[in-house]
Backbone:
């Protein structure tokens, strides 16, 4: 029966206003949630267990504020909660994050890992394929539907000509896109279980970062646009797209 | 310092974004090698003719007939010289870049939109902030299409071909072609998208007929994708859909929720058509028309046809 790991990351709510001041982010007033694509990863992991048995471990790399996203995963039905953290890890680069996650996954003895296609803060999409490569596992990214087999999984992914149905043997990493499924909501029993749940905290080695953040800045302001009242102005807009913007 | 571009091909031709990657590599400084993973060397001449390129290596392997992360990474890693690796920030190249970075124990910086004095800037938090980083050593860097100017032609780089094989990690069992041959939103230079304000999926035919005139892709808001069969998730633009960066984005009956903006705010020009003058989309539009789509779309189509046909 599969030993399933799902990666979950704590990120600002996608509705939150992100304030930049003096080259730094000010996230003090921001509500944090599980990264949206990770909700699809959790849903897939739980469906995998429901289909084929096994256990689901939610794994996050982060400080103790990240216990909350683990407990939220517990409320949905995952079995075990593991948080990976060490002193001085505030500024890990992708190399550090992936090395640490890969070593934790290997220690957990997992054969299939689900994660989000990209985190809502980094928008990177590096972690799934990067962890897979470090473990020497197969991977697919942007999977929309996953079905479960004895020795692997089958996933639908976008391809240059449309979609492809691909099969992966264990061990493998699958990063999840939104797809057709609706992630479940916690029920009362789950919420009670989550309150009592214990988070296991572990550590690992991580290489010193070589990509270092210099500053954050707000996105470039666009000059204010022109708004026309009424459909009679379509011609003016089309002319502007041709003559001012030069895009048609 | 050495920069190695991993190019994409489409139907055997070099992807035009490659010349943009050369400009990005130039701003990092140092020599430039283009590595082309392919099944034949049909793209090498175009690559050699990009100004500023020193060397072109075409890597030929069976696995390159369809994308597979692990075998591609292995085959390319065996051939690509050391240095910074530079790829386009497309779905496949971001994934491939991450695998090669991990294989070489390097960090990766995704979605770069500008490079100044060795500092790389990328949008994060869905475009709500930009982060600027420095590199202390080699890195894999993916570059957003449409943000760097294309390097000129007129180069004459040395070209070679290497045959390589690799184990295939994931088996493609079936390719399912798209029902219609319309361009994907992530590939298009012009996108026309519809939202809940379109009233129903049948009305998307009007967007499609305008897309045909413009050679555009048709996109949708999540509200439209969730509400209506036939408006597939592949069309969704936004936080949980695709991030697009076209020259022109036309939003029809879309309010402009922050999660929709997350996917399209970096478009060069934005046109909004909405009946509600207070809709937030107008704050981000270069050109807005306050009117119903029923009134606007027929005349928009007629105007475009007379201009373009
Ligand atoms: C975690 C999360 C992720 C999300 N991800 C995405 C995402 O990826 N993409 C996305 O789009 N949304 C996403 N959303 C949803 C987002 O918050 C909005 O609900 C959605 O974008 C609204 O879609 P809409 O603009 O089509 O609909 P509405 O907000 O209902 O707007 C419809 C608009 O149509 C206008 N209208 C009505 N009739 C007409 C007419 N006849 N002519 C012209 N205009 C008309 C109205 O004035 C209105 O402004 C996400 C939300 C969450 C919480
Ligand atoms: N610190 C982390 N802890 C746990 N999972 C993570 C972490 N960072 C990234 N991930 C996982 O990897 C996915 C992609 O992240 P990214 O590569 O940052 O876009 C996320 O959606 C998570 O599933």
Residues:
């Amino acid at each position: 029966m599969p030993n399933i790991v799902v990666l979950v990351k704590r990120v600002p709510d996608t509705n939150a206003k992100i304030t930049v001041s003096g080259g730094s982010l000010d996230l003090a007033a921001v509500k944090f949630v599980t990264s949206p694509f990770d909700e699809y990863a959790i849903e897939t992991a739980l469906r995998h267990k429901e289909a084929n048995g096994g256990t689901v471990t939610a794994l996050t790399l982060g400080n103790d504020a990240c216990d909350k996203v683990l407990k939220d995963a517990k409320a949905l039905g995952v079995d075990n909660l593991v948080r990976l953290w060490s002193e001085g890890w505030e500024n890990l680069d992708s190399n550090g994050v992936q090395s640490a996650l890969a070593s934790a996954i290997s220690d957990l003895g997992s054969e299939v890992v689900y994660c989000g296609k990209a985190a809502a803060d980094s928008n990177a999409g590096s972690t799934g394929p990067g962890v897979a490569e470090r473990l020497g596992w197969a991977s697919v990214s942007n999977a929309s539907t996953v079905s479960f087999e004895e020795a692997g999984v089958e996933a639908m992914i976008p391809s240059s000509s449309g979609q492809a149905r691909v099969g992966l043997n264990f061990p493998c990493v699958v990063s999840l896109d939104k797809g057709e499924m609706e992630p479940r909501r916690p029920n009362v029993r789950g919420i009670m279980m989550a309150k009592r749940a214990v988070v296991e905290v572990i550590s690992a080695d991580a290489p010193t970062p070589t990509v270092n953040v210099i500053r954050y800045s707000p996105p470039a302001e666009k000059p204010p646009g022109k708004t026309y009242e009424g459909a009679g102005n379509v011609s003016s807009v089309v002319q502007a797209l041709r003559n001012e913007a030069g895009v048609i | 310092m050495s920069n190695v571009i991993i190019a994409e091909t489409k139907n055997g031709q070099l992807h035009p974004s490659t010349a943009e990657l050369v400009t990005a590599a130039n701003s990092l400084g140092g020599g430039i090698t283009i590595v082309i993973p392919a099944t034949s060397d049909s793209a090498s001449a175009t690559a050699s003719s990009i100004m500023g390129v020193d060397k072109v290596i075409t890597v030929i392997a069976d696995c390159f007939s369809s994308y597979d992360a692990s075998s591609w990474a292995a085959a390319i890693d065996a051939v690509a010289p050391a240095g910074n690796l530079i790829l386009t920030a497309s779905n496949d190249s971001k994934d491939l870049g991450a695998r090669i970075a991990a294989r070489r124990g390097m960090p990766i910086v995704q979605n770069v939109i500008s490079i100044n004095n060795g500092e790389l800037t990328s949008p994060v938090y869905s475009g709500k902030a930009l982060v600027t980083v420095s590199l202390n050593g080699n890195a894999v860097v993916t570059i957003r299409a449409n943000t760097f100017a294309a390097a000129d032609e007129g180069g004459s780089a040395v070209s070679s071909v290497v045959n390589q094989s690799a184990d295939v990690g994931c088996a493609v069992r079936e390719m399912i072609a798209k029902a219609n041959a319309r361009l994907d939103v992530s590939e298009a230079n012009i996108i026309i998208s519809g939202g809940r304000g379109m009233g129903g999926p049948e009305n998307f035919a009007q967007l499609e007929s305008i897309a045909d005139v413009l050679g555009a892709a048709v996109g949708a808001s999540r509200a439209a994708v969730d509400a209506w069969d036939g408006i597939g998730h592949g069309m969704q633009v936004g936080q949980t859909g695709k991030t697009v960066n076209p020259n022109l984005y036309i939003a029809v009956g879309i309010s402009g929720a922050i999660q929709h903006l997350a996917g399209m705010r970096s478009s060069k020009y934005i046109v909004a058509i909405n009946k509600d003058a207070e809709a937030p989309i107008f704050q981000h539009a270069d050109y807005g028309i306050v009117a119903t789509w029923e009134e606007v779309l027929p005349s928009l189509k007629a105007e475009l046809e007379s201009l373009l046909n």
Chain B touches chain A through 95 residues (CB under 8 Å). The CA atoms of residues 97 and 140 of chain B lie 6 Å apart. Chain B has a mean pLDDT of 94.
